[in-house]
Fold each of these.
Amino acid sequence: MLARKGFHSARVSEIARAAGVADGTIYLYFKSKEDILISLFEGHVGQLNQELRQSVAALPDTSARVAHIVRCQVGSLRRQRELAEVLSVTLRQSNRFLRQFAAPTFSEYLDIVAEVIADGQRRGEVREDISPLVVARALFGALDGLILTWALGRSPAGRLERAALQVAEVFIQGLRPPATS
Amino acid sequence: MLARKGFHSARVSEIARAAGVADGTIYLYFKSKEDILISLFEGHVGQLNQELRQSVAALPDTSARVAHIVRCQVGSLRRQRELAEVLSVTLRQSNRFLRQFAAPTFSEYLDIVAEVIADGQRRGEVREDISPLVVARALFGALDGLILTWALGRSPAGRLERAALQVAEVFIQGLRPPATS
Amino acid sequence: MLARKGFHSARVSEIARAAGVADGTIYLYFKSKEDILISLFEGHVGQLNQELRQSVAALPDTSARVAHIVRCQVGSLRRQRELAEVLSVTLRQSNRFLRQFAAPTFSEYLDIVAEVIADGQRRGEVREDISPLVVARALFGALDGLILTWALGRSPAGRLERAALQVAEVFIQGLRPPATS
Amino acid sequence: MLARKGFHSARVSEIARAAGVADGTIYLYFKSKEDILISLFEGHVGQLNQELRQSVAALPDTSARVAHIVRCQVGSLRRQRELAEVLSVTLRQSNRFLRQFAAPTFSEYLDIVAEVIADGQRRGEVREDISPLVVARALFGALDGLILTWALGRSPAGRLERAALQVAEVFIQGLRPPATS
DNA sequence: TATGAATGAGTATTCATTCAT
DNA sequence: CATGAATGAATACTCATTCAT
């Protein structure tokens, strides 16, 4: 709903109808229309963060971890094209949110990814000449770019996943330390 | 202006004042508020496309070309943080625009990048197991992610450029065909 | 309100204030500003039509019927000078309305009057050389002319009624078949 | 032009284009948009008044005079359906004008007609029990009603004229003093 | 006289939010 | 907890008018 119409186009009364409640009822659960969006985001990304924290450490090396991160980020959206659009597109529609873009939840996500990279550098699995945080942002952006066009288009979910894995491989290979002879 | 406030938050009268004209004058040059945004986008990306077309062919190999693309995309925004925000963030606020996301100008950009990759594959400089269009989208997204956080933050332009070059290197190395012994 | 200021001059917010509700509330009951006008018209003329239908048949001859029609049309407005102005003057301010001028409700009114005349012709009470519909339009127009100047002026209601009855007599006598010796 | 679109819908720039001049040029000849309308009215009705003044006195009796008035009022519009609409419909769209509805030019017209009736009463050709001014207003209104529907419809001009003559006959017969045996 | 680019006051309508029930 | 009728602030856009040329 939110996604099909975009956040600014979606009317609170439509959201309410879609949820099967009256307009006013929305305000028993959310402080404002914007709060609905923030809650969606925090819920989604928060869950993703939790998932990553629990699983990443168990994986043997950076390659496996990056592949896992990609699968998680993309996989969590795979079956909910609309949510994907909400998060990829619509989130950027809220000014107040934008000012919190480096907000805890999102920063946390970036930190988790950056830590994987930094750890890879310590292990000698990742080249030293790049900033872990830059990689985190670029990886997020790259997947976001895929998700955005996928969410707006009509390609099957499988195609998104395959594209994401290709991107994962580019990053994995691209992050490896240059072979020293 | 548009960028500081976001597109939906910016009032036409504010845009007019910032431009030093009366409200009505805006409508002598733009069909609607949304048209202002689209014009900005078409102008910027159109120029970028033209620039790329003219220069890419002259470059010797895919590595140089990818580095060039990155420099162009990022460099064209470097001195105009606000425009960066408009294009990276705000453009996604317009529904009509979103429906034209695969619009000529943007598609053209993707095609140019994809063609560089495809050509690289024909030359044996780029691994065959990835889709050129996927690379184009991912590269765009990765840079967009950097630009977004840069535009919203307060880092100096130099930092953006350095980050972008790191991303370029990751992609360049990541795209190389796996060494076959 | 509507009448004092004219339809185009009346602001929706003024109409709302006069009605003792908030601006937005108007739109719970009317589709648009123009709809307010159309509703007024349909309500007024519709009621007039109903009244005429119920009473005309019971009257013995065409003279009585014409007199009755005049009394009804004028009488229904007598105590609402402002409504008179709305209907006589302001209705002509709406283009969309004009295109529906032959709209059901008004056509119905003309048909009722025309049928009285046509029936009079069949009974031999009305001269045959005039078109019933022309009479209907002329009678409407004549009364409308009186109502218009009355509504805009400050004459007491009684004067309007007396004038209307004079017009009724002119029509009644004017419609009689010429005496055949 | 003015008529096809209505006065409120017609844009000054359209009027200018139709006249083959630039927007600003209009204001060399008219004080305001409303002034265009008033000028049209004054011009048309003023000419009608002049015409009536010159010809009415020469006619032998009230019947001939009423018939002449009708022919003049309707005839002057016959070939200009659009002007008819301007005068019949559009004039009522201007508030300032409405407040001048009893304005000199229109009052003059009513006075001319009323004087014909009053003179008829003095000659014994018109019944004494009706007010000359009421007749003037009713006659104007009756013709206005015909003209309005004619201007908005698509009937040929001849039909309007025939209808007007029927109305004239109704008035002429209706105004005659009741036969006293 | 004539132009037409620029103006900026003016307003219908929407829709997030509230609160009496 | 839930409702949904009522609210009223907020804003893109139009178009009559002006005036420098």
Amino acid sequence: MFLSIDTHDPRSIYQQVADGIKALIARGELAEGAALPPVRQLAADLGVNLNTIATAYRELQREGLLTVKHGSGAMVASRTLRKALTELVLAGLPKSKILRLVMDELRMVMKGAR
Amino acid sequence: MFLSIDTHDPRSIYQQVADGIKALIARGELAEGAALPPVRQLAADLGVNLNTIATAYRELQREGLLTVKHGSGAMVASRTLRKALTELVLAGLPKSKILRLVMDELRMVMKGAR
Amino acid sequence: MFLSIDTHDPRSIYQQVADGIKALIARGELAEGAALPPVRQLAADLGVNLNTIATAYRELQREGLLTVKHGSGAMVASRTLRKALTELVLAGLPKSKILRLVMDELRMVMKGAR
Amino acid sequence: MFLSIDTHDPRSIYQQVADGIKALIARGELAEGAALPPVRQLAADLGVNLNTIATAYRELQREGLLTVKHGSGAMVASRTLRKALTELVLAGLPKSKILRLVMDELRMVMKGAR
DNA sequence: GTGGTCTAGACCACG
DNA sequence: GTGGTCTAGACCACC
């Protein structure tokens, strides 16, 4: 991940980090589903505090760009996936049916990908 | 479902049924995720044999337009969903990670739909 | 604006105009914040004297239904806005704090409306 | 302000504080426009760290329940005010006209309150 | 005076 | 291992 921090930038550090990650996602350099570096590692790489990165990740999660899970890191959320699921939810499908669809599609897609 | 069968049509009946359903899906009259009538019911409605409909459904399933499950009928597949899942599979994500993403996004989407 | 004057109406003309505008506001045809036609234009449209319209506008302003300003015409007052401001005044907030609240909320509202 | 922290509560402290303030607002014990205690003071009162309270305030601000301003503290936002301003913005009024309305209404309201 | 942010270091919860 | 939170204390920016 190529992120840089500019101490002359009027934005706060965590904001620069959040904006930087947003830009990477927007440019496709961080693909949907890609894993982000652990908070501690990125903090070390950038030479900033762990909490600063955690704040950036939290902001991105709040905006729905990141999927963060305790114990297994953060990954870039999939807008396409969200769009598809939103369609199905709005169509009134119960969660169980949606999951069935997902499992079926996934099985078919992974078979094709062998 | 508005499907009609023309005995003068050179196409076989199951093909007419399959093509008719494709057209309904293409026109959006059968939305992604929508349930199709049970094989027996559609056969009765159209006055054709049960196996004819089953063959049509099988063809549509083979083409990926339908998701068919023993005991719970057929439903229109979601192209958007497939596209999203394909992206993630091609990105090299293991099934487990993809399912985590799906669950996370689904939770977020359903929360917003309250 | 659809206003009509009836010379057989026992009410005075300015009263008919004022009542007519009140009715337009009540029916929502003149929304809160909407601009009213200039005094001269409305007078010409209705074929009455300029002062008659001015009197009607003054009455509506006195009743708090219109906000009139030298040089920039009249507009329909916002009952909701007045209610909100009244609340804050009664809560003892000084004008400066209220204006700060207004500016903050306005900034937030206009951002969301982008 | 009556807030209490329960160390046995599974929610994080900042979440308890944020929820507590939300409840106070919902019950009307913190009126619209009311000032909240300074971050440092509330932190001292509750015996927690300054940052913990700051996090709670930030969350409430993000949700639009608080108006926070550098150097002059936090106050409860006015939902009524926001609703009124939203109406006017959606009606297409430019910021300048809206502010004129506000000033006019405010002048009228404060005169009545004398 | 006010809130905003950052750091260093700690402990917890999750998997 | 991962992120989440809290603390203590610092400095900055705004008014």
